[in-house]
């Protein structure tokens, strides 16, 4: 774990780490050293890892050096070596280059090609991705919040096994903000998505929004790394966020979403209208009529909004991204966050039963948020089992260990991160894999004023959210 003496250097105003003349010198990337890199962290499982998991695709030879700058393939097709080069280049640059040198690693033109290729895939996917046709040799890895902690993501991918035709990944959102490498983390996952579009599924988190990224650091990170091209890069990232699906259903029985459940939006045909063409739909999403929404309603929600609204007719995206479970029965407004819902065990049971589901995996709450949530478990191991009901379970999964990277208090949470492996034949009996943080992290400065920003996303400045939209 990261000790206090090894904490990153931080200041309130600078987003560029202090560097010496030696630090500023561009150094040749070293040979890949996966074995050394991943030897500083341990992983544990609540159950033994099954021996039947198919091995990952073989990485390049250890003596292979990434070609920096990364170039877009001449035929436009990403292969495994290209993705491995990107991983190695990002990891090396995080330790050897100042943020302003990032374009020397990934030029803007290559960034544009990667984001465009991914956006074309994402925008064709439905709001709720159906992940079916899983054979007896398949496994599904579910990942929670990672928040720009690149080195922990690299470890997770190696520990779980890289994506393959029979090892699928579902990432549950919050790739950016707070951590210092949100851009690298997001782009790396985009690369995996383009390379294996039917084995990697990237869902949206509440931080994949204009409001959150302007408050919690991602916007400033992009501007620091891409300089004059930063605004262009940031806009492209926002456009890509809009295409991220909201939820998934795995093997017909597991529902995953960043925040969780959502309300039904009551729609009533107007009595004045005649004929199908002119029929006016009147929406009535009143608080006093709160009821659980359906998967059909989820499929029709408009997800392509940068900041999901907390009022009006398009409330489902905000609910899916911002809601939290509660130990109190029923549905109620999530007053602590100012957006989304709180739902009780009875709602979990009803949702599972109505849609023939057995398990809900959501994310959205780290150790800081759980500190303020009486009745619910802490996040020391990277996951909690929040509801156990007749129809199944509700799990909160958090994959950013030793979080947050920047913390105003001397005492750290030192939480583990976790990922879940779902296996045949049913795919709804989770295997939990907890892991510690890669240490020490490269020394960097924060991209947001972490001392004044509330770390649990509570008490949102909704007026600022409106102006950011």
Strand order of the largest sheet: 1-17-16-3-4-5
- Number of β-strand runs: 17
Supply the number of helical segments.
Answer: 14
**Distance from first to last alpha carbon:** 38 Å
Q: What structural class results from the helix and strand content?
A: alpha/beta
- Oligomeric state of this protein: single chain
Major sheet description? 6 strands, mixed
| Approximate strand percentage | 5-15%
> What's the helical proportion of residues?
25-40%
Arithmetic mean pLDDT:
85
Rg for CA atoms: 22 Å
Uncertain ranges: 1-41, 47-55, 279-287
| Overall geometry | globular
Family: Belongs to the PPP phosphatase family.
Biased composition (Polar residues): 1-22
InterPro entries: Calcineurin-like_PHP, Metallo-depent_PP-like, MPP_PP7, PPP_phosphatase, Ser/Thr-sp_prot-phosphatase
GO molecular function, one term: metal ion binding
Quick description:
The protein is α/β, with parallel strands linked by helices.
Account of the 3D structure:
With 469 residues, the chain is α/β, with parallel strands linked by helices. Helix content is 27%, strand content 15%. It contains 14 helices and 17 strands. The chain has a six-stranded mixed beta sheet, with helices on one face. Strand 14 (383-389) and strand 15 form a beta hairpin. Helix 8 crosses helix 9. It is globular. 46% of the residues are buried. The model is unreliable at 1-41, 47-55 and 279-287 (pLDDT under 50).
